[in-house]
Amino acid sequence: MITPAFDLSQDAEYLILSIRVPYTRTSEFDLYIDGSDFKFYAKPYFLRLSLPGRIVEDGREKAKFDIDKGLVTLWVPKETAGEHFEGLQMLTSLLAPKGSRSAKPLIEDLSTGCSEAAGDDEDDDEEEFDWQVEQEVYKESSEEELRALPKYGFGNRRSGVFARLQEELSDVTDIKNPEGRPAAERRQARLDAEAAAFSPDHYLADLFEDEEIKGLLKFRPWWAKLSPSTEQEGEAAVSFNDGEKEQLRKFTNRSYLLDKTSRYQVWLSLVDILLAYSYEVRSTEGEHNVSECVCVCVKSSLQDVLVSFGRRVLCYPLYRHFSMVSAVVRDTIKILQSGKACVLKCLLDIHKVFRENDPAYILNDLYITDYCIWIQRVK
Question: Which of these, 157, 342, 348, lies nearest to 249 by C-alpha position?
Fold first, then answer.
């Protein structure tokens, strides 16, 4: 569990808690409010406070989430209006000490008002669970420290995320501890992992027993069925369903100031993402579950992207045939030639799958959300 950065303030009626929880689900957090005891959980963050005054859950509590800042602000009513809570700046002393044990329920779902039971039978009720997880005040990395770390994400603008969320992201990165490795070492670690994963027997089986492969090569994905647009010359006619339109309305409009090198990396990474997406769609004949694994190695050229993709196809997935690599490259070319609306629809599809899966939703914050916004502004 990670203790989030937090601040406390107050007015006459409310205790106001500002809790930083970047890279977490915006709609899923749990609270437990009982007198001077406050608990907050939003995977992977957990905060437990022993407050200098009593608070109450009576229906007046409010919450606001700033997606861009990853900031949850909570207004929790004071039990006695007008009471002044002393020492709210003494953050370390507010973190409840380790040592006491309790079988009381940890959290209460605000949407239902129902406490989660500690157990469903007498045996579970008798077994106490230690909720007193050791906590330390989270220390934000300085700008100098962040600049020294490897960069990744959209436009290589993020750093420090993997170090902060190591447990959450261990299953979605292609190499371990990417934060502590320079670019050359990350690249070599990827190549070594691919060499270790390559199975000659699997490759030969797919090469000579290729009936399933032939069926997948005949599959026509949705972008191959698009008709020419009557509005944009040279582009395909793409429509968005109600769910995709709703997601587009939820995005925060923003501008991206990218230098020439960053723009080049953004386009290379977009090709990388579309190749992985196209492979998943073709290999599952449209019933895809987009791969959660992300490569944190910076690609230097389009050839580097294509070679890396080809190696991964021959090492990791169920179908390992070079004809699949060729077909997917053609698919990706078709998507790009069909215009930015087609690219956006692919990105929204990826965003939806990531949004519904742990811990892949974090990849939306690192990559896909920014791509969905940026591609709409590309001239």
Answer: 348
Placement of tokens 């179908």 in the chain: 319
- In this predicted model, what pLDDT tens digit does every residue of 155-177 receive, in sequence order? 888 877 776 676 666 666 766 77
- Tokens at 315, concatenated: 């090492």
Q: In the beta sheet, which residues pair with residue 64?
A: 73
Alpha carbon distance 50, 35 (integer Å):
9
Strand order in the sheet with 6-10: 6-10, 14-20, 71-77, 62-66
Residue 358 has pLDDT above 80, yes or no: no
pTM listed for this prediction: 0.73
Query: Is residue 103 within 8 Å of 128, Cβ to Cβ?
Result: yes
Between the alpha carbon of residue 199 and those of residues 292, 328, 352, the distances in Å are 21, 21, 32
The backbone torsions φ and ψ at residue 79, rounded to the nearest 5 degrees and listed phi first, read -65, -35
Cβ atoms of 10 and 88 within 8 Å: the answer is yes
pLDDT of 252 reads: 85
Q: What is the pLDDT of residues 113-146, one digit of tens each?
A: 443 444 444 444 444 434 556 666 666 666 676 6
Residue of 70, 23, 67, 73 lying closest to 253 (CA atoms)? 67
CA pair distance 312, 330, nearest whole angstrom: 17
